[in-house]
Write a structure and sequence with these properties.
Bound molecules: glutathione
Strand order of the largest sheet: 4-3-1-2-5
Organism: Pseudaminobacter soli (ex Li et al. 2025)
CATH class of the largest domain: Alpha Beta
Radius of gyration: 18 Å
Pfam families: GST_C, GST_N_2
InterPro entries: Glutathione-S-Trfase_C-like (IPR010987), Glutathione-S-Trfase_C_sf (IPR036282), Glutathione_S-Trfase (IPR040079), Glutathione_S-Trfase_N (IPR004045), GST_C (IPR004046), Thioredoxin-like_sf (IPR036249)
Number of domains: 2
Helix content: 40-55%
GO molecular function: transferase activity
Largest sheet: 5 strands, mixed
Domain GST C-terminal: 92-218
CATH architecture of the largest domain: 3-Layer(aba) Sandwich
Length: 242
């Protein structure tokens, strides 16, 4: 792999949280490439485990060929490159602190609340009774985190003002899981619902979902091409082994 080319970011499917950060790459507008990762298939291979030993997306391969995992680390990497402050705020400013607070909450409490719902779906040897217990806990955790987020959201169009930031990106990648799991009634959380509707109508997020679904899509022009995961794994093998 050419190590001086654009960074490569994963688009995990189905329903990957990475869709949020794909939208952030689009909003940032700097050149990048994507690699689609089937989370039910090729993510489970030994080759992928060498990319991310915790067998998760998202993963970023920087232009130097370094592998960076974890949503928060990748969000901070994006923030550091956002010198025009399109999706972040001046480091050290109160708004930057608040952005980090949102990203941390969304990536921990809010995202983690769905874990029992995923476990109920994916636990291979669970009985129906065990699955229902997991779903019950999941619904209660997701409800609690929705109530908390609803109370945090102000009157602005986005989480931190009148334009989308990394916080909205991290939110949007995960918020749609509530529908998939039928975990809450979205109408009970009008501010969250309005925010979701706004971001889900945004061309950047629509582009992220189209890529996730394997459809041809035209984004902002910043995305310079899709790289097959096999090529990414081949290209990073040497760097990781080093
Ligand atoms: N702590 C990680 C968690 C990422 C995560 O939960 N990824 C999900 C997809 S959105 C995943 O890969 N789950 C593994 C699976 O589906 O088995 C991060 O924030 O990046």
């Amino acid at each position: 792999m050419n190590t001086t080319s654009e960074p490569i970011f994963t688009s995990g499917f189905p329903l990957g949280s990475s869709a949020g950060l794909v939208a952030a790459f689009e909003w940032l507008g700097q050149p990048y490439r994507l690699t689609r990762v089937d989370m039910m298939g090729e993510m489970r291979t030994e080759a992928y485990k060498r990319l991310n030993g915790r067998v998760e997306t998202p993963v970023l391969i920087t232009e130097e060929g370094r592998v960076l995992t974890e949503t928060m680390a990748i969000a901070l990497w994006l923030e550091a490159r956002d010198t025009e402050r399109r999706i972040s705020f001046e480091p050290g400013s109160p708004k930057a602190d608040r952005l980090h607070q949102y990203v941390a909450f969304l990536n921990t409490g809010f995202t983690g609340a769905f874990v029992p719902m995923w476990a109920a779906l994916e636990a291979e040897h669970a009985s129906e009774e065990e699955r229902e217990t997991l779903r019950k806990f999941g619904r209660s955790f997701v409800t609690n985190r929705h109530e908390q987020l609803e109370a945090m959201i102000g009157d602005s169009d986005y989480l931190l003002g009148d334009r989308p930031t990394l916080a909205d990106a991290v939110f949007a990648g995960v918020a749609r899981w509530a529908d998939f799991h039928k975990a809450v009634d979205p109408r009970d959380y009008p501010r969250i619902l309005a925010l979701r509707n706004r971001i889900e109508a945004d061309p950047a997020f629509r582009f992220a979902l189209a890529i996730e679904d394997g459809k041809t899509a035209t984004g902002s022009g910043a995305m310079k091409g899709l790289v097959p995961l096999a090529d990414v794994l081949r290209g990073t093998g040497a760097a990781l082994a080093a």
